[in-house]
Amino acid sequence: MIRVLVWNEYIHEKDPNNASSTVYPHGIHNAIAGFLGKEEDIEVTTATLDDENCGITDEVLKNTDVIIWWGHCGHDRVPDVVAQKVHEAVLNGMGAVFLHSAHKSKPFMRLMGTSCSLIWRESGDTERVWVSKPSHPIAAGIDTCFELEADETYGEPFGIPNPDDIVFMGWYSGGEVFRSGVTFTRDNGRIFYFQPGHETFPTFYDPNVQRVILNAVRWAKPDVRTENVMDCPNPPSRNK
Amino acid sequence: MIRVLVWNEYIHEKDPNNASSTVYPHGIHNAIAGFLGKEEDIEVTTATLDDENCGITDEVLKNTDVIIWWGHCGHDRVPDVVAQKVHEAVLNGMGAVFLHSAHKSKPFMRLMGTSCSLIWRESGDTERVWVSKPSHPIAAGIDTCFELEADETYGEPFGIPNPDDIVFMGWYSGGEVFRSGVTFTRDNGRIFYFQPGHETFPTFYDPNVQRVILNAVRWAKPDVRTENVMDCPNPPSRNK
Amino acid sequence: MIRVLVWNEYIHEKDPNNASSTVYPHGIHNAIAGFLGKEEDIEVTTATLDDENCGITDEVLKNTDVIIWWGHCGHDRVPDVVAQKVHEAVLNGMGAVFLHSAHKSKPFMRLMGTSCSLIWRESGDTERVWVSKPSHPIAAGIDTCFELEADETYGEPFGIPNPDDIVFMGWYSGGEVFRSGVTFTRDNGRIFYFQPGHETFPTFYDPNVQRVILNAVRWAKPDVRTENVMDCPNPPSRNK
Amino acid sequence: MIRVLVWNEYIHEKDPNNASSTVYPHGIHNAIAGFLGKEEDIEVTTATLDDENCGITDEVLKNTDVIIWWGHCGHDRVPDVVAQKVHEAVLNGMGAVFLHSAHKSKPFMRLMGTSCSLIWRESGDTERVWVSKPSHPIAAGIDTCFELEADETYGEPFGIPNPDDIVFMGWYSGGEVFRSGVTFTRDNGRIFYFQPGHETFPTFYDPNVQRVILNAVRWAKPDVRTENVMDCPNPPSRNK
Q: What band does A84 get if pLDDT is binned at 50, 70 and 90?
């Protein structure tokens, strides 16, 4: 059983003047938890900024195999201590899937160590997501490419360290390209960033997007989970 | 002209009970500045924990092409705001060379995003530093391998992201191995970590070590230096 | 069920004057097939230079999930057409595990595209194999490090492309270091190279070595297996 | 002085029925040699399939710092022995720049070890080439992106090993994306692949394309040039 925690800042969707309130009336987190929860090997919980400590404690993280993170205008409202807990849990082995505007979230930026900057435009461009690494488990079941009729445009340069693998690359009708699905390993933790998913578009109802997120969860599940990755052991010499 | 800032916490060497006070009577920073300053293409300054704001201001960083960092027991005495300034300067293009125990310094850890952990032992092991990438500019002028009669032992696993290149690998008489010289690119900045250099050994007087540090400074010099790498531009569509 | 083909040139072991004839009386391939064949999820066959076409046909490769390759003095006796078949099968998804002196085998060299050179010495050095990436599936069940009392020494620089991951690093009592366990992905195929295994030492009876090879087989098993990876499709435009 | 050899199969341009005969009346090689030859630090020669041994001998390669390669329908007419000479020269340090359809040339395929496959379409799409790594020396002087009104379309997946750096990414009006400018290191040699340059379009007269090729030549110039990279030395132990 893979224990997944879907974290969402949950701000836009509560604002009746924001289109996302209609698209995701119960929040993006519940849309994601909805399709993941149908899988027999997955157990889902959710947490948001509204929860005490963002719903993230040492106990919660210890019982989470993979965290999914969506954030946008509320990045700064996540306390540093919470970001640090998530960061260290990933280094100890917890898998992490960062979606869309989570590229500037505190946990992702701490894990990358870079600007995580990009160019962007809200012009309802069509996005075509191409599979650039067909043999990667995260691309399983995805055809050569798939289309999202409209989503926010992200463009290169994307200020990330060179990823382990580029699973997806995005094409936008407005003229940009983007490394849309990229993987990283940091200490014991596996990390996947996936570009689609602006709050005002029904991206998380798209079957291909759902399949990618499901694949990513299964891929990011830890093989090794430690508690002390930050320590530096001081062993004696092994030679006589 | 490459403008180099050698930063050293400068704690051990001021303690008359610490062997380093004899080995580096004017501090590790001045030992390094000493040999770098002889080069015609290099202009060196130094700074330490004793300076106001660690001697690091926006103005200082703006006028630094490459920073060299040595720290050990004083990592926590570097304020977060100083670590952040150094971090962002590197992302904007400033080169950075981290030496020995700087693997757990705040700027290096922020750049890596990992534990930066390793195993260690102060047993005066002999280290043999092997060149594993002979064509890398940082290995220029270095033979197949060179020896340091005694230094602190560092051993794998080293909790860093997979580096761009492994220029040197270390062998220790006590039985450990280590990725002793590794390069990274983070946004516009080039980073080199080099393992040798415990404060109680005359490592920084070794001609091979000096040559490596000199090579690294020339390699890390920025091609591009920006001021706004953290920004996300919002351009219009380029298509009609 | 993972279908494994253990390929061995099988030359040294048939020479009664060679120590390997005593260590591996039935050949290295049968020693490896012996321990792999005990696993419930693995089905093993073997092939050698003595078989027609080296025992490698399109049909055989089609029914092989992972190939294991040991070769040394007989590299040149493998026909180019056989090497090419193995090469393309890997690109189409077949996993491949190359052992010890297979670093200069034709299939490995074709997959790497580099010199695959290294320094070596037959002096019976003790080797200590360190885990440098503890969370990698190939390191599962392996402690911090393990020792081989005597094996051939290999040393850096190792002329390979930068690997995806360095799972193991080797320390030798004679003074060398080596990237002893490295992974690569080439098109759809996963590749693992593992350094230990000189023919005159009982390396393949070592429980740690056996565990590593078993882990590697399970890791290298294809997710995707194609037949046409060499083709370049010519699709129409997806835009109106 | 950087000694550059521009190699071109030179087939299409000699066919009066092929549009390229008008676009490149003296061949693509002379168009490239033309703009490179104006640089004070570069000395250019050319060679084609029409020359004896393709104009490539040990002597020629020894005196070449960087080779530029354009080929398409004549890949198979390059003898294996010539491809091998080029391959080994690169491993010994010679820089190499492969242009457009050279992705399926023998020297490039030998260096990569992969399928080098891609999807393609000759539909005169507009290509927009984005800089994805602005600090890379090959991107020097290139703006955020540049456009080629029409060129052949190449699309992902591109069957190459993960490159060291992705300097450029291509967007096509027909809907594809491509890693258009990628770097590799193989032993001592630096390699750059650049996607634009179909024979029927005036791509090699474009100032941005010319600047990229010039930058690539300067970047690929060897730091180290050996003659024996294929050898495996057998040194004595360095320990007593």
A: very high
CB contact under 8 A, D112 and C113: yes
Instruction: Return the closest-CA partner of residue C204 out of C7, C18, C9, C33.
Output: C33
Distance from CA of B175 to the nearest CA of C (A): 7
Nearest to D169 among A134, A156, A165 (CB): A156
What pLDDT, in 10s, does the model give residues A103-136?
999 999 999 999 999 999 999 999 999 999 999 9
Where does residue D140 rank: exposed (0-12), middle (13-18), buried (19+ CB within 10 A)? middle
Whether residues D175 and C91 touch (CB distance < 8 A) is answered with no
Q: Please state, rounded to an integer, the average pLDDT across all residues of chain A.
A: 97
On average, the pLDDT of chain D sits at: 97
Closest by Cα among C217, C219, C209 to C31: C209
Q: Which residues of chain B have pLDDT under 70?
A: 240
Q: How many CA atoms lie within 13 A of D231 on its CB side?
A: 6
Tell me if D28 sits within 8 A of D10, measured CB to CB: yes
Judged against a pLDDT cut of 70, whether residue C240 lies above it is answered with no
- Which chain D residues are Cβ-neighbours of A156 within 8 angstroms? 130-132, 169
Mark yes or no for CB contact A135/C223 under 8 Å: yes
Interface pTM, i.e. ipTM? 0.97
On whether the CB atoms of residues D165 and D117 are closer than 8 A, the answer is no
Average pLDDT over residues C220-233: 96
Closest CA to B191 of B105, B126, B127, B123: B105
Nearest to B113 among A174, A186, A238 (CB): A186
Sign of the Cα torsion A220, A226, A232, A236 reads negative
| CA angle (B47 as vertex; B45, B51 as ends), nearest 5 | 135
Return the SS3 of A239. coil
Is residue A240 scored above 80 in pLDDT? no
Cβ burial of D73 (10 Å; 0-12, 13-18, 19+) is exposed
Number of neighbouring beta carbons within 10 Å of residue B25: 11
pLDDT of res. C238: 86
Closest CB to B115 among A104, A125, A230 = A230
D185 and B135 within 8 Å at the Cβ level: the answer is yes
Helix (H) or strand (E) holding A124: none
pLDDT score of C239: 84
Question: Quick one: average pLDDT of C78-104?
Answer: 98
Which DSSP string do the residues of chain C spell out, in sequence order?
A: -EEEEEEE---GGG-TTSTHHHHSTT-HHHHHHHHHTTSTTEEEEEEETTSGGGG--HHHHHT-SEEEEE-STTGGGS-HHHHHHHHHHHHTT-EEEEEGGGGGSHHHHHHH-S----EEE-S---EEEEES-TTSGGGTT--SEEEESS--EEESPP-SPPPSEEEEEEEETTS-EEEEEEEEEETTEEEEEE----TTS-GGG-HHHHHHHHHHHHHHS-S---S-TT----PPPS--
D240 pLDDT tier (thresholds 50, 70, 90): low
* CB-based contacts of B107, cutoff 8 Å, min separation 6: B69, B78, B83, B86, B87, B90, B96, B98
| Per-residue model confidence as pLDDT tens digits over A135-177 | 999 999 999 999 999 999 999 999 999 999 999 999 999 999 9
D206-213: long-range contacts at Cβ-Cβ below 8 A with a sequence spacing of 24 or more? D206/D146, D206/D148, D208/D129, D208/D142, D208/D146, D209/D148, D210/D35, D211/D140, D211/D141, D211/D142, D212/D138, D212/D139, D212/D142, D212/D168, D212/D181, D213/D32, D213/D35, D213/D36, D213/D68, D213/D97, D213/D99
* pLDDT at site D238: 86
Q: Which chains touch D (3 or more CB pairs under 8 A)?
A: A, B, C
Q: What is the pLDDT of residue C24?
A: 98
